[in-house]
Amino acid sequence: MPEIRLKNITKKFGKFLAVDNLNLNINDREFVTLLGPSGCGKTTTLRMIAGLETPTEGEIWIDNKLVFSSEQGIDVSPDKRDVGFLFQNYALWPHMTVYKNIAFGLENLKWKKDKVEERVIELLQMLKIEEFSGRYPSELSGGQQQRVAIARTLATGPKVLFMDEPLSNLDAKLRMEMRTELKRLHVETDSTFVYVTHDQLEAMTLSSKICMLKEGLLQQFDPPLEVYHNPGNAFVADFVGSPNINLLEVTGNNTNLDEVLLNCKELELMYTPVSSSLTVQENQKLLLGIRPEDITIEEGGKLKGIVYSTLPSGMETIVKIDFNGIILTSVVFRGTDFQVGKEIAVNFHENRYILFDAENGKNMGQGELSAL
Amino acid sequence: MNLRNRFKSFIRKPHNIILVTMAVVLVYLTVIPLFTIIMDTFKVHSSELMRIKGSQVGDLTLYHWKQVLFNPANSGKIFYEPFMNTMGISAGTCLFAILVGGLFAWLVTRTDIRYKNLISTLFIFPYIMPSWTLAMAWLNFFKNDLVGGVPGFFTSLTGISTPDWFAYGPFPIVIVLGMHYAPFAYILIGGILRNMDANLEEAALILKANRFKIMWKVTIPIVLPAMLSTFLLVFSSAMSAFAVPAFLGTPVRYQVLTTQMFRTLNGLNPGYGYLMALIMILIGVFILAMNQKIIGKRRSYTTITGKSSNISLIRLKAIRTPLSVLLMAMILLVCILPLVSFAVESFIMEPGNYSLTNFTTQFWIGSGSPQIANGEPGIFRNSSIYTGFFNSVKLSVLVAFIAGTLGILAGYAIVKRKNSRLSTAVNNLAFFPYLMPSMAFGAIYLSMFAARRGFIPPLYGSFALLVLIGAVKYLPFASRSGVSAMHQLSNEIEEAGTIMGISWFKRMTKIIIPIQKTSFLSGYLLPFISCMRELSLFILLVTPSTRILTTMLFQYNEKGWNQYANAINLMIVGIVVLSNVIVNKVTGASVDKGIGG
User: Fold this and answer.
1) What is the average pLDDT across A45-72?
2) Which of A66, A242, B76, B267 has a CA-to-CA distance to A286 between 20 and 30 Å?
């Protein structure tokens, strides 16, 4: 069954290092997203796996078959890798009708005419675009074009499907709808999906595993919730989640047994690691990561602040609170609103507040937090 | 990755093979000729033995450089005077072309002038027609008795003899070349005006700027790069024009570099000619470099092209109709009247006499009589004209086919590997022939291919040599339209086919070419038309068996057999215009698409 393995993959464009020594194992039937800001090498990685780009170094295996090796000089052409590719701007052939766009690849494989027709109609129905079969791409809306592109990619029944930001050209509402559709397709087609996006929400909602990249380097490769709650470093923590995680610059000192006293301006917090103990140097610079939903607004809270701004959206309200010059973001679910300038109190009830090393950004551990 | 594997993955890609092949072939066909020219400026040629005493053919010498550039007694007449004339003519031509072309472009895009469609169609005509068409028409109208023979229409009808400065020399050359290249300016400037975001002007309007201020502060700065670009392109084209100065300048011994080159290359001092060719190439390269710099800046302007194009047109009010009629009249004067004059001249027995009894069909269907033109039979009975006609058509079709096809491949490969050194090199190599003055290019090929070179047999006198030089010379047009067509096509369109296992050949023929067929066809059309009307490129290379219409026209004209020259000119214009109209109507491709790039 298709399993994709990348070994020490490096890609250079001239002197620019696009992908740096990437190792990745994608299991069968997974839905993996390559996530990162623009220029992080995610599209290059996808194109290398598909065979559209030649890596500078390394090996790629698909389905236990070596499809690329710089050492052995193996470079299997894209069509022999049994993969499908969905392009960002659909890449529909403008001079062919919808029917012809889907049928062209099959005809090229010398399928019989009635077989081709049967398959095309099946796909048209599956993606609910039967009525457009005679139209040209320019006569379709963006969402319809997207469906045709998906149908064309699925036509030959590839075992692995690559998608390069396929939803970025659609409006917000349509994007939502297509996300549902893609997830359903993943189950229906029973194949492996590799998906490139810079939209963390898309990565969170769609994938079974997120591969987080930055400047060509792998940051973390874990299931979405793991990435969210236990990010490998401050960069990942900051990239994933909306509203953004609060990253507070603090200095830490070990007190008592294994508790750490955190100072930020006048604010003093006591941090208790939940897993192993945590040793910090004296006055070590740290970053404290607090997810907005982990700040609970309640009467009688230990920490008092002033409402700085509120963004109520109906389902939730994002509240920014000013604690003597330190502004933290909090989220309250259900539609409540707060008056700007009013005093408010909060508590920290969870046990998943994260400490990062301020120097290298590394995750040092999770723990509980209480205000002093 | 080791070298062997890198090489293996390199040659697996079709565009790499195309680029490498093209690089090798183009170096051989364009860079080596350049070196040959440089060498030839230091060499003794057989016709120069008498002058350079005690020398042998092939000896190295500084004689040509000294005589052409550093001999106070001779250099002025040989080089500096023609050089200054060339510069003056080119600059004048540019100004005239930009003024006329820019004015028409502005009137058509920004005012409510009438007959817009007709004007845009007809205005391109002077560029499609051979450049000497207007020169011959000028002579037909304004010839005076300086050259002997008979005066033109104007003098015949009014009895007033035109002054020499009006009939010959720089004045008519600038007017004629200027009219010929005005469409160039019209297309480039009009394109910018049409694509310019109207919001820019509307924004100024809302800020209560008046029309004149908008024009001066907004519109002109925006089209300025296009104007400069036009200026440089027209300058380099005008510089290498040969036929027009030859027709209009020779009677008053007004020499420019090209006519001087023709004399020296064809006569006793090929070394002089090569040196002049070299200098012209250098100026051309310099101009191109400047143009590239300006175009580089222009990008920041072209990105502002927007969708809104409903700028309120300037109302010409009372002068609308008179101005429209005036413009139409001018265009008809330039486009249609020359043709009428050719037709009339070709039917006249004794030139200059326009009475009805003097009309004859002798020169079209006569069998030829010994008293007239050495018994040359009429056009339709003249086997050598048939030969020329078929040669011209055959040559143009072959050249267009080769240049156009190579242009598509070049465009494909260049864009596919864009930003790599190899692709930039091929792109520049493919454009280089544009900078070679046609005449010098012909001269070089003459000397390069006179003898056997490697596996290439001696080509002089063969039809293949004409096809070869034509294909190389017009490759720039085709590769430009190929590159711009491929730029408009997203890479993913092809990759979508690659990933499905569609072969390269099928991707080209079933996907890429069908999508961009209009642009690619323009890449075939422009070489065809240019080749059909080309004179200076072929003039040194044709032999009686490979003669083509343009060189025959030149010979008839030199012999003073005006009726034949006029008739042939009419034929050439007819073929060129007709093929353009047919291709345009059937496929939508047109010449102006090719020039813009």
Assistant:
1) 91
2) A242
A217 burial via Cβ count (<10 Å: 0-12, 13-18, 19+):
middle
Contact between B529 and B128 (Cβ < 8 Å): yes
Gap from A70 CA to chain B (nearest CA, Å): 5
pLDDT digits (tens, 9 = 90+) for B139-184: 888 888 777 666 777 877 787 778 888 888 899 999 999 999 898 8
Model confidence at B132, pLDDT cuts 50, 70, 90, reads confident
CA geometry: angle at B344 spanning B548 and B337, to 5°? 90
Residue to test with chain B: of A69, A74, A85, A163, most B Cβ within 10 A: A85
Q: Do A198 and A34 meet the contact criterion of CB atoms below 8 Å apart?
A: no
Helix, strand and coil percent figures for chain B, each rounded to 5: 75, 0, 25
How much is the pLDDT for B171? 93
Question: How confident is the prediction for chain B on average, in pLDDT?
Answer: 82
CATH number for domain A246-371, candidates 2.30.30.760, 2.60.40.10, 3.40.50.300, 2.40.50.140: 2.40.50.140
- pLDDT at residue B300, as a whole number: 39
**Assigned token pair, A48:** 């290398």
Asked if A186 and A13 count as a contact pair (C-beta separation under 8 A), the reply is no
Say what the pLDDT of residue B19 is. Answer: 93
The answer to whether residue B493 scores a pLDDT higher than 60 is yes
What 3-state DSSP class applies to A260? strand
Task: Quick: pLDDT tens for A90-102.
Answer: 889 998 999 999 9
- C-alpha distance from A91 to closest chain B C-alpha (Å): 5
Q: Which of B253, B288, B321 is the last residue of a domain?
A: B321
**Number of helices and strands (H, E) in chain A?**
8, 22
Q: What is the ipTM of this complex?
A: 0.79
Q: Residue B297, Cβ neighbours under 10 Å: how many?
A: 11
Name the CATH architecture for the domain at A4-239: 3-Layer(aba) Sandwich (3.40)
- By a Cβ cutoff of 8 Å, what residues of chain B touch chain A? 1-2, 4-5, 8-9, 12, 490, 492-493, 495-502, 506, 510-511, 514-515
For residue B182, being part of any structural domain is answered with yes
- Going from the C-alpha of A322 to that of each of A271, A297, A305, A307, A341, the distances in angstroms are 21, 13, 5, 6, 9
Question: What type of residue is B428?
Answer: N
Residue-wise pLDDT for B220-270, tens only, equals 777 777 778 778 878 888 888 888 998 888 888 899 998 888 888 877 788
Does A70 touch chain B if contact means CB atoms closer than 8 Å?
yes
Range with lowest mean pLDDT among A267-276, A344-353, B154-163, B317-326: B154-163
- Partner residue facing A108 (CB), from B492, B501, B514: B501
- What is the span of the domain harbouring residue B26? 1-36+362-597
Q: How many CA atoms lie within 13 A of B519 on its CB side?
A: 22
Q: Tell me how many residue pairs between chain A and chain B have CB atoms under 8 A apart.
A: 73
Instruction: Give the distance from residue B182's alpha carbon to the nearest chain A alpha carbon, in angstroms.
Output: 36
